[in-house]
């Protein structure tokens, strides 16, 4: 059986950082912090300044483990109970969902819901229902 780690303090800190970053991006640049939209715009920026803020935000997202290493002296452990193939398939499914849903959990779930966007509320409810169903099927029906 897959064991789920319960990390309330780390989760609270991470959520607070995402919320603060979202507020600052909207305050200073007037943009929604949707990770997939930021990544897509990085590869097709509309201007040099558009590329710069996207590059800075993406650099911040991927350098987190290095910051943990500098502060604690240890790289954070990355463990997954799934195979690489399952992760690739899951990533492709998420990519299709992000495309069909016109955004990801950070854009809809964090920013859209904070703005009380009906489309984002429906999208987030759909994300969550799909997640619950997937976990139930994998853990209790398939038994992985």
UniProtKB/TrEMBL annotation:
<keyword id="KW-0997">Cell inner membrane</keyword>
<keyword id="KW-0472">Membrane</keyword>
<protein>
    <submittedName>
        <fullName>YeeE/YedE family protein</fullName>
    </submittedName>
</protein>
<feature type="transmembrane region" description="Helical">
    <location>
        <begin position="121"/>
        <end position="142"/>
    </location>
</feature>
<keyword id="KW-1003">Cell membrane</keyword>
<feature type="transmembrane region" description="Helical">
    <location>
        <begin position="83"/>
        <end position="100"/>
    </location>
</feature>
<dbReference type="Pfam" id="PF04143">
    <property type="entry name" value="Sulf_transp"/>
</dbReference>
<feature type="transmembrane region" description="Helical">
    <location>
        <begin position="6"/>
        <end position="30"/>
    </location>
</feature>
<comment type="similarity">
    <text>Belongs to the TsuA/YedE (TC 9.B.102) family.</text>
</comment>
<feature type="transmembrane region" description="Helical">
    <location>
        <begin position="51"/>
        <end position="71"/>
    </location>
</feature>
<dbReference type="GO" id="GO:0005886">
    <property type="term" value="C:plasma membrane"/>
</dbReference>
<keyword id="KW-1133">Transmembrane helix</keyword>
<keyword id="KW-0812">Transmembrane</keyword>
<keyword id="KW-0813">Transport</keyword>
<dbReference type="InterPro" id="IPR007272">
    <property type="entry name" value="Sulf_transp_TsuA/YedE"/>
</dbReference>
């Amino acid at each position: 059986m897959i064991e789920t780690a319960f990390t309330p303090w780390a989760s609270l800190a991470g959520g607070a950082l995402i919320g603060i970053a979202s507020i600052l991006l909207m305050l200073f640049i007037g943009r929604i912090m949707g990770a997939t939209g930021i990544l897509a715009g990085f590869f097709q920026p509309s201007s040099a300044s558009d590329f710069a803020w996207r590059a800075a935000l993406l650099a911040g997202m991927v350098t987190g483990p290095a910051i943990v290493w500098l502060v604690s002296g240890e790289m954070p452990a990355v463990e997954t109970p799934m195979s690489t193939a399952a992760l690739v398939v899951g990533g492709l499914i998420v990519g299709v969902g992000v495309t069909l849903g016109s955004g990801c959990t950070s854009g809809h779930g964090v920013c859209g819901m904070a703005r009380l966007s009906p489309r984002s509320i429906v999208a987030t409810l759909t994300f969550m229902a799909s997640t619950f169903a997937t976990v139930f099927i994998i853990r209790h029906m398939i038994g992985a």
